[in-house]
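Query protein
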Amino acid sequence: MKEDLIAGLDVGSTAVRLVVGHANTGPGRDELQIIGAVSSNAAGVNRGVVNSIEEATSSISACLDKAERVVGVPISKVFVSINDPNVKCERSKGVVAVSKSDGEINENDVARAIEAAKALAVPVNYEILHIIPVSFAVDNQQDVKDPIGMSGIRLEVEALIVHCLSTQKNNLTKAIYRTGLDIEDLMLAPLAASEAVLSQKQKDLGVVLINMGSSTTSIAVYEERNLIHAAVLPIGSEYITNDIALGLRCPINLAERIKLEHGHSVPDNFEKNDEVDISNLVAEEEVSDDITIISRRYVAEIIEARVEEILEKVDDELKYIERSGMLPAGAVLTGAGSHLPGLVETAKQKLRLPVSLGTCKNVSAVIEKVRHPEFLNSLGLVVAGSSQDESSLSKKKLNINFDNLWGKLKEFIKKIKP
């Protein structure tokens, strides 16, 4: 069972989350079962960037220990999300001549075209995280989705290149390696979440996934089933908490409780005299504060200002790729910050798009915790890790069987050897 485990690790600024799945690949079965989902408090990470390897390692180790107790077997390798605000995206083209004499395009030609697209000037201290084909062209035929098997002389690919800062990637991987884990792959956070949340229909029509975390907000834009843009913005839901703390002059832990239990992003839903007694929250948080009554409209006005700022930055990214208000499948909200009441309504007005909360669509999860918006990044990593085609799985099994056979043959030769 240990070999069939697929684990997705999301190292956030306030929490480390780990989701573990089990791939059932027996006869007549080809499904993914989620068998564990845990989280622990994060330290050593700020705005998606590791600023203390020791603290980050301790946080990841604590989460790993919890997951292994839940699953019952050791976890040795993980898929990891990266949420660095320094991520950059750019388009690149690669052109190659078709290798076969009969002009039939094969997988090797596609691989060479993609490799040619990678031959661009990478910014200093950056490295390529993802190279994602957007469209192909065969001779004069444009917008080819899958050129394999087609005939032509010239193959061209347009690809989206995602760059990440080398130092930030190295610091994150170093913190994970120190826990004894191996990294199967690194994946940009919104791309991971989209694996679990977005349907093929949404990706075909045009959709933006908005993952609102505590200190970052990341987006992934899809159109005609292809990723056309991704970005990580250095602003998240903890800025709303900070604004409430300043506006009400209360401690940060009390401001977080007020946001979660009495917050709303639409002030017009409340009258000026709509007030709420928070003396119980003051007692539970053990703060020496004389605040007892707050105006819900005033709190909503504070929240609205910051939410609109976040959504304006998202809309700026859509304007950059000329898709502002032009995605028929709208926006899908995920992340811990998407819990905020009224956020969907505010997003509809600011983005001028249909907006909905993200739910787990692409995997049947029995564990209810996995369906929460904050776990969708980790869940998407597990889904992405399990989406290997059957041929690669069968090839892997064939290699294992061949290795076993070869091992037995060598043992037999040793026995009969004089």
Notes: The radius of gyration is 24 Å.
